[in-house]
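The methods section describes the discrete structure representation at length, but only in general terms. An entry of this sort, consisting of the sequence and the corresponding backbone structure tokens, reads as follows.
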Amino acid sequence: MVKHLLGPVPVFLGHLLVETRRHTVRIEGTTEEEAAAIGRAVRRAALALAAVFDVEYVHAVIINTGCDHFHQHVYPRHRGTPSDYQWFEADSWPGAPHGDADAVEQLCSRLRPHFL
């Protein structure tokens, strides 16, 4: 099991975060260059997730609550997710892939070539 702040839990496989190197609280605090790099990184993450999973969609969202630094979530909605699971609930579907530290490491190995 992956160690989580709340204790050991399996994690939803494919939930990625894009962050800036320079600290900023919100997207409007980024420079033009940083914003363009964020867009490229989000696109690359979406393409990588679509390449390694059978996805219906790849969502990208900035929520910015409860955290004092910018990050953008990029995560898949796996094919077969029932329609009664909203976009922000796809990870709670029991059929969605979840895994432990070994599964996360294996997924990272599959995603890595898409970021080189």
